[in-house]
Amino acid sequence: MSQQKETFLRIHPHDNVLVALQNLEQGTVINFEGNTFALTERVAAKHKFAINELKPEQEIYMYGVLVGRATSTIPQGGLLSTQNVHHASEGFHLGERKLQWHQPDTGNFEGKTFNGYHRADGSVGTNNYWIVVPLVFCENRNINVLKEALVDKLGYKKAKSYEGDVEQLMELYQAGKSVEEILNADIQAAADRPDSKRLFKNIDGIKFLNHSMGCGGTKDDSDALCGLIAGYITHPNVAGATVLSLGCQHAQVSILQAEIAKRDPNFSKPMVVLEQQKVGTESELLQQALKQTFAGLVQANQTQREPAPLSKLCIGMECGGSDGFSGISANPALGYVSDLLVKMGGSVILAEFPELCGVEQELSDRCTDEDTANRFMHLMTTYNAKAEADGSGFYANPSPGNIRDGLITDAIKSAGAAKKGGTSPVTAVLDYPEKVIKPGLNLLCTPGSDVESTTAEVGSGANIVLFTTGLGTPTGNPIAPVVKLSTNTAMFERMPDIIDINCGTIIEGDETIHQAGERILNYVIQVASGEIEPKAVKLGQDDFIPWKRGVSL
Questions:
Q1: Alpha carbon separation from 511 to 65, 332, 387, 466, 542 (Å, rounded)
Q2: Distance between CA atoms of residues 125 and 128, nearest Å
Q3: What pTM, to 2 d.p., does this model score?
Q4: Which of 98, 101, 191, 305 is the most exposed place for a label (fewest CB within 10 A)?
Q5: DSSP-assigned letters across all residues of 130-181
Q6: Residue 133, Cβ neighbours under 10 Å: how many?
Q7: Cβ-based neighbours of 413, under 8 Å, separated by 6 or more
Q8: pLDDT of residue 371
């Protein structure tokens, strides 16, 4: 006999709204804590409705925190929308340290290890990549030439190709078919060709990190770019690097070298640095780059996977294309993963500061000392003030997709997003692009923009990223595996080519948050050992977007 599924949920005892877990039609009778009322209009799954009548300017609570105010009367059983609710959140101040947390049972993970790449600085990589990166956008073309020369020949070209599709379209055109006939043609997908044989068995790939920065912007942005690139070069998932510089740009080689030394004073990885204005001709530059990169690959190929404790994992927690189920399924499941890993001595990164708006007090109270709490509040305040000065603010963070699927204020989105950080104390607060050096939960100042934030988390040391999505997004990263988790089953079934794990089981009552968290961590261990290749890696989704410190929410 199947268990009856819940149709709505109150997330926290202090909340005065309910979340629809299914589409609920107008007139649906709601029985809640002895109170019976009918919905005044249709409430789609993921959206919220009022438990009691809400007067204009009355506070609205979800997750136990203030998330908005009513702009007009919302009747009992009435739908909350952007037409009758506006963003609101509590202020915050330096409070008492609240360091008690719900320490999970880690018995199921005792003695477990992953097979990773051990580095001289004591870190352990989940992959072994060589990176090729420009210090300035002027070198992007030369980076692309190196990519064309190296990737296929060395066996790193992805199997999926649409060249066969284009050939079929060409044949139809040459046969005199009309545009309508071409559009209606049944193109037979070509079978994926097997991966080329890799020359270097212990190198997972060569990654090319093109970008649009390095000169022409602010000096602070170019300095931060050097710090970010240094974070990638010193990253445990990176075996070595080739760096191309023009020579006259703001992002100088000397700045990059200083940033590398800050992160790894005894840096010993193979690194090729070439400056075009010193070398001379483009041909000479590229020949030197190819020869020296190949020599570096020979050296990097000597490293092999070996067992490592789970404490060597540093997981970045990310979300993108969020929906009204994010904060009650996938995000709290990641929060449990966070708590499991922290208890075992690992590191977790929670970023996206615009999506922590409204939960500042809780997070600052969880900081292990007052200096850490003050730094978090300062970064939040100055970031939001800069955004407001430029005509925006954290309140403008939700995207049209977020709003359509139930996240109608930034505070609603933020309260759910913060669940990825679990309940453990905050051991460090980092400003972009600083490196994680302390185990435990680290808060990293990044924008809410998911690609910029993922890029930053990896630059700070995340050797795996867990990425929740309710709407679907193909985002990945060049050097760190990005594991996608769906908040709902419908999206998981609709987009199986980009989603790895379904957390809709929590919404449907088939799995608890704790069960899902343990399932996710077991999957992470397999990914970290190279036993499973996440969908973003299979697709070659190598997104790399440095953060321009101007306003990006």
A1: 26, 13, 40, 19, 32
A2: 7
A3: 0.94
A4: 191
A5: EEEEESSGGGHHHHHHHHHHHTTTTT---S---HHHHHHHHHHHHTT--HHH
A6: 22
A7: 322, 355, 397, 398, 402, 407
A8: 98
Q: Which two tokens stand for residue 397?
A: 């963070």
User: Mind giving me the DSSP string for 273-301?
Assistant: EEEHHHH-SHHHHHHHHHHHHHHHHHHHT
Span 502-520, pLDDT tens digits:
999 999 999 999 999 999 9
The pLDDT tens digits of the residues spanning 47-73 come to 999 999 999 999 999 999 999 999 999
Task: Quote the pLDDT of residue 551.
Answer: 65
Q: Is the bond into 433 cis (omega within 30 degrees of 0)?
A: yes
The radius of gyration of the chain's CA atoms, rounded to the nearest angstrom, is 25
Q: Rounded to whole angstroms, how far apart are CA atoms 377 and 390?
A: 20
DSSP calls for 172-226: HHHTT--HHHHHT--PPPPPPPPPPPPSSTT--EEEE---S-SSSS-HHHHHHHH
Q: Where are the beta strands (DSSP E) in 230-278?
A: 238-245, 271-275
Which residue stretches of the chain have pLDDT < 50? 1-3
In three-state secondary structure terms, 478 is coil
The Cα 415–Cα 371 span in angstroms is 24
**How much is the pLDDT for 2?**
36
Residue 119 carries which side chain, given as an amino acid letter? R
Q: Which two tokens stand for residue 169?
A: 């379209």
Tell me the DSSP string of 402-455. Answer: HHHTT--SHHHHHHHHGGGG-SS-EEEEEETTPPP-SSEEEEEE--S-HHHHHH
> Nearest-CA neighbor of 436 among 295, 235, 243?
235
